[in-house]
Fold:
Amino acid sequence: MKKRATLLSAFVLFGCALLPSSVFANKGNTERSSCVEFFEHIDYGGKSITYCNDVSNVGNAWNDTFSSAKVSSGNGVIVYEHSDYAGDRWELRPGNYSNFKNQGWNDRISSVDIK
Ligand SMILES: [Ca+2]
Ligand SMILES: [Ca+2]
Structure:
């Protein structure tokens, strides 16, 4: 346990040295948060928008439009079917998601919880 804690501390210090403090500010802790870039169409097509903080409502312009996404390294994100983190949820780990139809999530996302 002691070794694990030491390694974690080293990682956190290393991460803080490399990244601006604002990356950590949204959750008020030292965990590393992901950012997510959503795209209007599958295969990263159309318009895109990037979120690095929670969004309780993506707004009329983006509601039920996202069809693909890229999630940066970190703790991942959880997307919700409705605004205010309601309805069905889907956790996206860091990585690329080229077609939400594969997961039954095409044109459904209305809010986003950055982990
Ligand atoms: Ca779409
Ligand atoms: Ca929705």
